DNA sequence: CGGATCGTCAACCGGATGGTTGAATATGCG
DNA sequence: CGCATATTCAACCATCCGGTTGACGATCCG
């Protein structure tokens, strides 16, 4: 797996891991809390977190005996950029993007078109 | 693998399959021609194409004894939309986004910060 | 018809993946 | 100190994955 995209897409291919990422979107969490909603052992979730970390999708920081997990946007961005090359069919003007644009530019921004 | 995203991301996780998609970006191709540049058997490439097809990333159409492969943008777009949900926390740093911003606002845009 | 080309199928193999359990390693706390 | 909590490690297991080879079904063409 030399290409980092291999690890990134492989990490995203598992529904448990995608669910974890969604959870982390709302808040940073400790490993035990990440594992709570899943019907599997803590060790299994811990391994998922290792995979996400190696893919660069999350970062883990140990404070005391608790290891905190937070999203790391870089990897997702790289994957997104790669996919963007195929987006020529339908350019980037997704709803989320436009909403973001509006928020980012604030009220006084004048749209070009 | 009930969630279609499982199949899509799993398909994208393999470098051979991503290379195939890139090739198809330039032109529709027959299976044999898709296989040509790869150092593996035709059967192996054929299996990759099945995986890409099941993921909805490409479509295959048989004309005569030749099976043509073409990109199908829907699946990639679904994956992209899912990922877009993670772009909201630090979007301004994204290279692609900045390019998008620049293109969208044109030359006279003043950056907020 | 009969041979060549296109592509898949089937069986097989080694290695990766996703899960389990139980022991081990920190760290916090009374 | 000594116990509870947080997390990982190690071994193990079943299944999936990516590749191989050889046989097969289809289709074109001389």
Automatic annotation (TrEMBL), chains A, B:
Domain spans labelled HTH arsR-type: 1-93
Coiled coil: none
Pfam families: HTH_20
SMART domains noted in UniProt: HTH_ARSR
Annotated InterPro entries: ArsR-like_HTH (IPR011991), HTH_ArsR_DNA-bd_dom (IPR001845), WH-like_DNA-bd_sf (IPR036388), WH_DNA-bd_sf (IPR036390)
Protein name according to UniProt: Metalloregulator ArsR/SmtB family transcription factor
Species this protein is from: Sedimentitalea xiamensis
């Amino acid at each position: 797996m030399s290409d980092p995209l291999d690890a990134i897409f492989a990490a995203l291919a598992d529904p448990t891991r995608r669910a974890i990422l969604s959870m982390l979107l709302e808040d940073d969490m400790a490993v035990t809390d990440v594992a709570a909603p899943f019907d599997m052992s803590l060790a299994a979730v811990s391994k998922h977190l290792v995979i996400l970390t190696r893919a660069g999708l999350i970062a883990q920081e140990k404070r005391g005996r608790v290891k905190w997990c937070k999203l790391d946007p870089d990897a997702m961005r790289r994957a997104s950029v790669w996919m963007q090359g195929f987006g020529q069919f339908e350019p980037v003007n997704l709803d989320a993007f436009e909403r973001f644009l509006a928020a980012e530019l604030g009220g006084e921004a004048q749209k070009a078109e």
